[in-house]
């Protein structure tokens, strides 16, 4: 099996694996990041993570396993990018005494969008809202949320999945722009 060869240090086998799943991994991370350059970078990083994590792989659903790695990595990248934008905004607000018209307009639009998102979160069913706010806004892990709510981490994962499905069904992307 290809994975066993890779675990034994066969670099050629890893190149074959990369060729086989390159497009799949790219499309997976692109689905989260929505930016081609970021998705290309993320896909390369995902393959490095796959290579490093192969010793822990236990031969159960390889495609599911790499999908989980890819999605988690893409979400992490997206969070980091959002944090950097927020930090830049804070720096801008702290250092700027007389912002230009465009900057003020941008800040007002951003605040309106944040208000709209918070308002829309109130539309979520309670059990979904709690995990969405905890995971995406407070940036808690599944384990932290599970401890807080007195449930298993898998329950948090399922609720987040169902919350995303609910949002896809009930909300349009245009509602937030």
UniProtKB/TrEMBL annotation:
Residues 117-167 form the RNA polymerase sigma factor 70 region 4 type domain. InterPro entries: RNA_pol_sigma-70-like, RNA_pol_sigma-70_dom, RNA_pol_sigma70_r2, RNA_pol_sigma70_r4_t2, RNA_pol_sigma_r2, RNA_pol_sigma_r3/r4-like, WH-like_DNA-bd_sf. Signal peptide: none annotated. Residues 17-83 form the RNA polymerase sigma-70 region domain. Pfam families: Sigma70_r2 (PF04542), Sigma70_r4_2 (PF08281). Keywords: Sigma factor, Transcription, Transcription regulation. NCBIfam families: sigma70-ECF. Belongs to the sigma-70 factor family. ECF subfamily. This is RNA polymerase sigma factor. It comes from Siminovitchia sediminis.
